[in-house]
Amino acid sequence: MKAFLLAAGKGTRMRPLTENTPKPLLPIAGKPALQHLIDSLEEMMDEIIILVGWEGEKIKEGVGSSEAELRFVRQEEQSGTADAISYAERFVDDKFVCMNADVLMPKNVLTDFVKSFSKTENSMIGLAEVKDPYNYGVVTTEGKNVKEIIEKPEDPPESKVNSGLYGFTEEIFEAIDKTEKSPRGEYEITDSLKIMMEDSNIEHFKIEEWHELSRPWDLLSTNEEIMKDTLDEDIRGEVKENVHIEGTVQISEGATIKEGSYIIGPVYIGKDAKIGPNCHIRPSTHIGSDCKVGAASEVKNSIIMKGTQVPHHNYVGDSVIGKDCNFGSGTKVANLRLDDKNIKVIHRGEKIDTGRRKLGVIMGDDVKTGINSMINPGTIIWERCFIGPGALAQSEIGPESKIQ
Length: 404
Prior knowledge:
alpha/beta; 404 residues; 2 domains; 7 helices; 7-stranded mixed sheet; 16% helix; Spore Coat Polysaccharide Biosynthesis Protein SpsA, Chain A; UDP N-Acetylglucosamine Acyltransferase, domain 1; single chain
């Protein structure tokens, strides 16, 4: 059997993190997000076909497989999910698994789905239970079959939604050929599925656990859960004397953990990173390659990407920090409202309730902060900004801004 992974989108809702990095390569628990999918599928698949678009070469270079053959197919122009899936027709000659590359599921869930799909002659959709089904394609069922698919209903009849995991027979391509553009000018896979249902059954499969990477803060909850499930203890770097390590901690080759550092797993520390002396790394933290977390600094439940420096007297909590950022001494990130309510953000001009009680900063690449600068909870800072000494950063700060 073959798998077809959809990774061609620009990931605009994940900006500023995806201004320079394609969404499938955003780091989670020590690996690019897409690599987690490949690792879960490779033992079950003869070939994994990955549809790429923007920055496709970076994706090709950033992932790999030792078990399955990888094939990369380029989509020049995005015209909806159904159009994207149509690219698989040239490469599959039987039923195949298809899924969005921005949805991560535990290996056991994917294994059970593939087993169930292999036993039926029908297509299959993975369904997940959510609290806010009005934001998704809601699916009603009758017995083992899908009865109806309703896209983003105002009054959802069910809490089961389309998870973005499919098992398709070749009938899907006939349905796509008959699919017309939607009012928003795209070929929607939900329309294709409705066409299929006129002549054949589509079965459903219950997804017990899934992680959708839709907005930047989704990386934090996904990183936390996947670290619990997949991170292995593996210390390859240099650990100096008087370092305290407990829990599951992975330290990559070339990394150095200096005296007095206190690390509580699960924690991932990338290649050639410099940690300490006398710093505190708390659980669910991913520190990328060539990063530094230095003296009297504390990081918890955060993702810090390649080359970023958090060198002295800094606090970073519940945050996602882009590549090659530099924190001035004393820069502090606040991650909790004083009234203890959910963190609301302004993201691309839209006010959004993140659903998170704790959220620090979402920071793009190449941001610099001056000494003793302060960052309010739920702040979003776009790339190449400068936050001056003693300045307060809050709300949404556009690219190349200077806050004094």
